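Progress report, Aim 2. The chain analyzed during this reporting quarter is listed below.
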Amino acid sequence: MTRNGQRLLLLIDDEPAQRRLVAALAARGGWRAVFASDGEMGVATLGTQDGMQLDAILLDHALPDADVTGTIASLRERRPALPILLLTANGSVAQAVASMRAGATDFLVKPLAPERLLAALEAAVAGTAAGELRPLTEKIPALLGFDEIVGSAPEFRTALAIAAKAARARVPVLIEGESGVGKEVVAEAIHAASPRAKKPMVTVNCGAIPANLVESELFGHEKGAFPGAFERKIGRFQQADGGTLFLDEIGEMPLEAQAKLLRVLQSGEVHALGARHPREIDVRVIAATNRRLVDEVEAERFREDLYYRLNVVPVLIPPLRKRAGDIPALARHLLARIAQQPGLRELGITDDTLRLLEEYDWPGNVRQLGNALFRAAVLCEGSALTKADFPQIASLGARRSATTQAAMAGGVTLFRADGNMRPLEDIEADVIRLAIGHYRGRMTEVARRLGIGRSTLYRKLSELGIESAA
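Predicted structure tokens for the chain:
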């Protein structure tokens, strides 16, 4: 870590534009980047002063010297404990598998979304099996229908039934749920079951678009509409004409863009930046968020009129910890999909391993489960996955159990077993659990004593995965 408290990232990439972009994204999370243009220079950097202070390495899959796996092996040989992440093109699963076997900690798929990059870096540094926090949908693309989505828990089946019924109509759907519960999978199933199935489904991650580019991305622009608009751009709405537009992380959209989105939904017309006339479109909108949008409306971060326009059919996807009984079937289903990828094979999974997975609370939900299985499958040398293939899950599960016991005993653990401070989010979760127990579940009193509003308390309960009964 650098002297000013920033973490230090070595970025190995020969494209200056991409280096600047990644450095800017990483800076949002308190990272400073140093650069190398090829593998040889990256390995040499480890012997410099910056190299000795490194917290992580991110390298592009298309280096000038081409031997990415050799570069990873050389980096790993010199710094065995340093997290190494691979930046790969979409669909390069075989390259990613080979890289992980050579010693890479995880891989990310272009184009990078800021929250995905930061989550992967933070997880890698924390030693919590960074691959478990990467979205499996980026690594193993597949469109599932409702009959192919695995899960029998009543609350989950109810959500799917609502979504399936809504699929036949043109009305907007708002899918809410924690990160990783499978909101995009449900959105894809809605599209696949709708009369628009043969038309395009266009996905937009609202949190990954810079605020000043949201309008251009969604609605398009004409050549010369603003400085830097050197050519005409077709917006995502127009790309999805006749089909479905999936607005992921809608809660991240700036207020100004929300107003223009509302006008499009009301009028059925898109007005590209710089265009003389609007264009009529026929698009079915599905939105998703990991926030409670009603709380965002209350906090005036989201327009109330847009909320009601999007929330015609609400679908709430429960977290995986509330349907632990689905985990064995989910694990086998995901392993079958993983086995179809280049360089991987069919694997079984033992009963005691399934019990281990059922007992873990999966804060990253189905996404985390899928990626834990993916990582284990990549590194497994036997014919079936065992508990030994999930050391991080066993360790994290035990650590969480000890933390919960400490909180119930009337104290909050501030330090991890390795002597380092626990993350603030984990400490905050323990404090809230302790307060709920101390005030016997009287949530108004809990909120008052913690100095926060009731809506803020319930939002934190949802974000931190805390049951109000505690």
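Residues 166 and 377 are 37 Å apart (CA to CA). Confidence is low (pLDDT under 50) at residues 129-141. These observations will guide the mutagenesis work planned for the next reporting period.
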